[in-house]
Amino acid sequence: MKTIEEISEKIAKKEAIILTAAELKSMVRDGKEVTVDDVDVVTTGTFGVMSGTMAVMMVPVAEKCSFERADAIWLNGVPAQPGPCPNERLGVVDLVINGTAHADDRYGGGHLFRDLVKGKNVDVLVEAHGRHYENKVTLDEIEFARIITTRLAFKNYHALINPTSHTISTIFSVTGLTGPFKETTVSGCGEINPLQNDPSHRSIGVGTRVLLNGAPGYIMGKGTRASPDKPNVSAYADMKDMDPTMMGGMKTAHGPECLTSLAVPIPVLDEEILSGLKVLDENVPLPVSDVNGRTAHAKVNYGHIWGGTDKVIRVEKEKCLHHPDCAAMRTCPTGAISNDCIINRDLCINCGTCTFQCSEEVFHARLGSITLAEGTLPVSLRQSDRARAERLCTVLKNRILEQKFVPTKMLEPL
């Protein structure tokens, strides 16, 4: 048995063995015997649509005494809630803005958060006592800006299906979920998800240090809608330390959603912890639910989603017919596709939407499928990006090795 203090000493001496979750799983699949002596820390991570994301900020608007207090405020057209502090006559506004709030059907809070972190100018509009005040700000000019999540990193989420003959507009589809039993959309990073690798919650608890959108932050506790079967966590971090490639927004059939990421180091203290870390996709349950009311329909596993499939979308530009109204470009939920079939990999979340929109198969990937009593349903949308989550695990591994991030002991359990 090891202690976190002993592991921290090994990190300081550059003697620690740090593995990403993907590296450890590869060793397990290859049949290698991995013991507590073979690894000190395993880095886990997830990236995808996480609706329970908000930002708390204090935004400069005008000179002191310009207005008494704000009645309403918008950033790049995205509505925010003034408060909780009124900042009476100070010319600044405290606000809370939801990642799922939106200016229109393509731009929402998640897009706004990413633009701020990228250093872009943001338009601020305040309504106070019937008058309007405008300003342009960057994140550097915002004294206080934190991302807070009410829930993220569900241990396992859903595969959603539509058993009806009507196409359903939902946040779990880009173009509408068709039925009956014609397709499925999925969320979750399976075997590399932090909570999936800590089933006993011995590492992840209140005060655990993490990377939230690439920034050092902390777990605050369990999140909303958490349950013993489907736990999740709430966390926070400073926006000014975040990585814009590890966050963002995406368009869905029911409005913009927020993309959020979380990486958590799991110190390997004993065999029980190591045993939890050896879980593989094929042993991670994936509930299949009716999108109407989320009622349970069946259960498969994440091996159907991530086993033997392509984590990254491939492009064969020579097949492109250069249609003036490119369906793949028009429907891409993150706006990652531009002219000449160029994919902006910083924006692309490998969701697979383009593979169903392009009749010439310029964009293609094996996305997997699930088999139910009603037949085999192809995966038409992945709302989690396993490739990016694995990259985040590598980022955290390197920060630990470079002594830029030190794993911490939780203050209390979830």
TrEMBL record:
InterPro entries associated with the record: 4Fe4S_Fe-S-bd, HcyBio, Methan_mark_16
Domain 4Fe-4S ferredoxin-type: 339-368
Family matches, as Pfam families: HcyBio (PF01837)
The protein, known as: Ferredoxin oxidoreductase
Organism in which the protein naturally occurs: Methanosarcina barkeri 3
